[in-house]
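Bit of a strange request maybe. I'm writing a small parser for structure token strings and I need a real example to test against, not something I typed by hand. Could someone generate the tokens for this chain?
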Amino acid sequence: MNSHGTKSRAGHQIYSSPENTAKVPTYSAPLTGLLSLLPEQWLPYAELIRLDKPAGGIYLYFPSLFSSLLASSCAPIPPSPSKLAWVNLWLFLAAMIYRSLACTWNDILDRDIDRKVTRTRLRPMARGAISVEKAVAFTLLQVASGSVLAYRLKPICFYYTLPFLVILGFYPYGKRITFYPSMILGFGWAWGAVMGFPAVGVDPLSSTTTTQAMSYLYASNIVWCILYDTIYSHQDFEDDKLSGVKSIPIKFEGQTKRLLATLAVLQIALLIPCGRLIDASRWYYVGTCMGGGLTLALMIVAVDLKQPKSCMWWFKWGSLITGWVMSTGFLYEYSQHL
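Reply from user aminoacidic:
Good idea to test on real output. This should exercise your parser:
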């Protein structure tokens, strides 16, 4: 190989420029953890879908969990706990598949950009471990798997996934044309706030109250996604500036924490009318609104946006804590309708 590429011990090509070869390690297969247990030929695909990094899939699932609980509270006859648990198992599996699809599609289109970013330059597409043709075929397989899963849950759910797929397809282009790709991602990642309704047999357009409650929940989750994705994006702040990638951290350089605080207030504020529409008890406001707000405040105060490791830790764990805390209020409301 010439100075612009090396070979890993797994035989994958590494793309690197002369000026950064010294500081960026070449790829080597993981020796510990889940990925180390996989056959070598499966490894690039497991890395492509972030098999060992499930946080993104869990965040895609949270809006589905919230909406399935909210819809169950609105239903004339709420589903039993066992049925609701079964529905959420399907929603969780669908979220994991669609998150994998999102990663695959994003990496196909961003492979040239990823080679310029320290954190992403060794991803499978960027380092040439998977051909574009194979990655596209893998993408279609994931689309088919997710569609079958949605149809098996309820046939109507398949049709509700179509807008999500359109948003997902457009997202990678967003960072090329706007400083707000996180907003585009939010419209897709929050789509579970809609999906939970048909999943439990509630038409989200059946009444004005139901539609409005769903809309407030959807909007709140869009804002939440923008918030945690902004923290995540700060990991690549310097590389994004050099490569010309647009992002909220670059647009709001030096003012990001003020923006995060504004987003947190808006996220919780949108949940208040949602609760009023379903005549929620005070425990909804304590768990979902107050609890969610406090965990968001903790994350915003504690994260060090200049330290990539801090950004990743709070993205991974801070948002996870917020999601589970917020779910308590929705769960309590559902329990009161049984």
